[in-house]
Every structure is written in C-alpha cells, then in structure tokens.
Amino acid sequence: MRILLISLATMPLVAQYDKVAALGSDSSLTPMGGPASSPPLSTEPYNLPDFRPTGKLNDHLPKWLQFGLDERFRFESEGGEPYPLNRLRIGMIIQPAPWIKAAAQVQDARSFLQDSPTGPPNNVRWDLKLAYVQFGDIERHRVTLTVGRQLIDYNSTLIANSEWRNQARSYDAAVANFRLNRFRAALFAASVVNPLPSGISHHQEGNNIYGAYGWITRVLPRSSIEPFLLWRVAPAAPVEASAAHTGRLNEKAAGFRVRGAGLGGFDYRYELVSERGSAGLNPLRAWATTAGLGYTAGALAWRPRFFAGYDYASGDRHPNDGIRGAFDTMYPTAHDRFGIADQFGWQNILAGRAGVTVLPYRRWSVSGQMLDFWLATASDSVYNSSGGSVLRDPTGQSGRHLGRELDFYTWYEINREVHIGTGIGHIFPGEFLRRRGRSAAYTYPYFVVEMFDGKRVR
C-alpha cells in the first residue's frame, strides 16, 4: 500500500474463527479493538435462511470426504479510484480416521481496475494455498504433527497469516503440538510462501523461521501466559556501515504475552519482545511492547465495549553506526494493527488508541476508534505494515509526530454463511508527514462481502 498517497480459559493452538471478525483481525487483538472486538455469536435465529450449496453437497458425501468454499468480494480505495478485489478458495478434507487428516485448498485472488500493483498480493491466480497432512487431533490428543503447506497463527503480532490481504500468507512447515493439562506448546520449522502472479508459489530457500510457543493457564485468574522464542534466518538482509549492501540475517526474538478476559467485564493483553542477533556484521539490538485494556458494560443498552491500547517498537537511532536498532515485525497480521488504513507497521513507532464497540442488534457490531502515531526515533524511517522503509529524515529535523487516524467500521452476519462489512479510515497528517510526505490527508474506505460454506479448511 502507498502511505498517504506517496509511497481465556485454555487458549487453542490456532486463532479461533469468529464469524463477525472473519475479515482479518486475529481474535488475539480483541483488547485492542478492531474487527476482532466484534460480539460473540448469538444463539438467536438468523434473519435470513442459510445459503449452503457446498454444505448440501457435503450432506450427501461420506463424512471422511468434505469440501469447503470461501468467497470474499471487496471494494476499496487507496487514495485513488475505487477498485474491486475478489478471492475464491476451494478446499477439500480427507479424514479416514480420527487421528489422521489430509487437507488441500486452492485459491484464486484478483483485483480489477487497479492501477498498481498488478501482481501479488492482490493478484495471485490459482495458487496452492494449503496442502498438509495432520496426525492427531489438536483438541483431543496430547501430541500432534502437521506437515506441509499450512497456516501458522500463534502470535498475530509476529507470526500470522494476515488474512485481510487478498492473497494472505501460508507457510511450508512442520509443526508439532503438545498438550498436558494446563500446559500447551508448539514447536515449528517454517518458511513463508512467496506468492507468484500465477501458478503454484514456493518458499525461498534459506529464508526460514523456527519457533517454540507455549500456553500456560490457571496461573493468573481467567488468563493465559504465553512465552515464546523465535529464530529467523535469511540469506540477505540490509546492513549499514559496510561496503556490502546485504548480509546474512540471524535473528532471535524472545518474549511473552499475558492476556485474559471475563474479569468483571474487563479484558486485557500485554506483550514484551526482545530481539538480538546479527545482520551480516551488524549486531541487532531491538525491542517492542504492546498493551491493551477493554471493558464491556454488559448492563447497558447495546453492550458498549470501551478499549484503549499502547504500542511501542524501537527504531534505529544512528543509521551508520553498524548497529541495527529497528525492531523487526517479522510476519504479522497487519490489518488494523495500527488502524484500518494499514499504513504503519510495528517498527520505530509509538502509538496509542482508544475507541468503543456497540451492538445495536444481534450479530451486528459498530466500532469507532482514534489513533495517534509518533516515530520512536526521529532519525529512523517510517515503516509500512510489510516492514519496508517508506520515509526517512536521517537528520531527525522533521519532527516525530506522524499524525492521527479516525476509523469507523461495522460488521453484520446476514446468515450463518454470509457476512458483510464496511468501514472508513482517515489519517490526519502530523508534522513529520507534512514535511517529508508532501501530502494531504489520506482516506481508506472499503465494503466487503464474505461467504464461508461447507467444511472449514484451516
């Protein structure tokens, strides 16, 4: 995307599917607002009957063979003329026994009438989205193993599938899950899939991420503690103060997340991450933190949920000192990480947000939020949600205030399979963007219709 026209009980091992929130934000972002702050599924009847052509087909098939269909159609505008995006997924699950399952899913993602970019991630035609074999049931067995092309969504801030993107993210990976009473853990070795404009995409050799992620419950009331360790390697990463432009990346991230809900109407989240390692001869010294707090006034009309959040990620104070201080956001879920306009990433940033979600009617949520953005380090870059450097004043004389964003969005379940949403985000540029961006305000509107039918392929 261009920036401003110029550029808890036990927590499951995968993010849970929330129909109203299905458009992209991971459910772990609930304390921060966004689409994930939508209401829980209602038990009252839907206003319209089900529309389930794939489900009806599955009714006539043996239970060991099931098909799934996902369809999403979206209109959006990134500072220019609006254009449509379409994403179709067709999946199949073969499960001859409770302890073994094979899944595959093909995807066709396209944009229309878009000036640029014309390739990935908006246009990835007939790709292999998923293809894996799973031994064991994550919710029933103590040990499971999943091998092949799959989703990894243990920590949305650092490693996730970023579902809002038209193509979204898959991993070629081997994942082992373990569970024992109140302890759960996952060990994985993965390589992110680099999408091609058409045909079957592939990962980049040597660009790998390894990890251990844990969940511990019943230590704090209605909360989970999630320690993790990630190790990322890549054949080429930018370096500074060197004749070479790139060097081998060897990066380790250690941290933890604590989150809870149902605490007298309150929910919360806190996360702290430290990164160490090297990029070529440059040592890495970076860190980040995020915190969120929400309160649901269940006794009031429309059950308002008030939320607030704080984010910080370090920047690189000296661009030529041979030390890289900018935090690496790795592979996050980007949508609504810093507002629905999706212009900023979790790197060299200080941000605050506050907002409210209300429920005017069953299965209908309406949210509004305000965000304020600052550079953590004035002499480092503004980074986008993909980790790319967009604007920089190495002198630090352009100020630190990026601007403010005001968002409104709403989601509604028409029936069990079909959901619609619309929203608009507007960025008011601050001192830095007015000086360096030479741009007016930025507005991002969208309208989207999604359909999930048949067996959900995850």
Summarize the topology.
Elements: H1 53-59, E1 65-76, E2 83-97, E3 100-111, E4 124-135, E5 143-150, E6 171-180, E7 183-194, E8 202-203, E9 208-217, E10 223-238, E11 246-263, E12 266-279, E13 282-296, E14 305-313, E15 349-361, E16 364-375, E17 381-383, E18 389-392, E19 401-413, E20 418-429, H2 431-437, E21 442-454
Antiparallel strand pairs: 1-2, 1-21, 2-3, 3-4, 4-5, 5-6, 6-7, 7-8, 7-9, 9-10, 10-11, 11-12, 12-13, 13-14, 14-15, 15-16, 16-19, 17-18, 19-20, 20-21
- What's the SSE pattern? HEEEEEEEEEEEEEEEEEEEEHE
The portion of residues assigned to helices is under 10%
Rounded radius of gyration (Å): 22 Å
CATH structural class: Mainly Beta
The end-to-end distance, rounded to whole angstroms, is 27 Å
How many separate structural domains? 1
What is the average of the pLDDT values?
Answer: 87
Query: How many β-strand stretches?
Result: 21
Q: Provide the CATH topology.
A: Porin
The number of helices is: 2
Beta-strand level of the residues, as a percent range?
Answer: over 45%
Shape: globular
- Using the 3D structure, state the CATH architecture: Beta Barrel
- The residue ranges in which pLDDT falls below 50 over 5 or more consecutive positions are 1-39
The major β-sheet equals: 18 strands, antiparallel, barrel
Give the helix/strand class. Answer: mainly beta
